[in-house]
Amino acid sequence: MTTRSYWKRIPKSCSRLYPPRLIDHEPLPWARWGEEFATAMPEEILRLQEHAAIADGAPRQDAIRGRVTPLVGLYRISRRSSVSGHHPEQ
């Protein structure tokens, strides 16, 4: 990808605020760096990911449910229109 095509995808208002970071006039290789990091993932992060994947989500789900339950009534949609079909100007 050239720098010119990169600039075309960024709105003009953003291009002045966040110019692309370049190395030898090329955008930074974020995708390659991400792949390299994933293949050489530190052991501490791998253990944390495994712990999060096998952790029981029930206490967290109960906490979320407790916060959301009082709000459920706000999302009920009435089948009856609250506005009458009569328009005064007609």
The helicity comes to 40-55%
Beta-strand percentage range? under 5%
Span from first to last CA?
61 Å
Biggest sheet statistics = 2 strands, antiparallel
Total separate domains: 1
Structure description:
This protein is 50% helix and 4% strand. The chain has five helices and two strands; from the N terminus they run H-H-E-E-H-H-H. Strands 1-2 form a two-stranded antiparallel sheet. A hairpin with a 2-residue loop joins strand 1 (22-23) and strand 2 (26-27). The longest helix is centred in the middle third of the chain and has 12 residues, at 43-54.
Q: What's the SSE blueprint?
A:
Layout lengths: L2 H6 L3 H6 L4 E2 L2 E2 L2 H10 L3 H12 L3 H11 L22
Antiparallel strand pairs: 1-2
Short description:
The chain has one domain (3-72). 50% of the residues lie in helices and 4% in strands.
Q: Could you name the key traits of this structure?
A:
mainly alpha, two-stranded antiparallel ribbon, 5 helices, 50% helix, flat
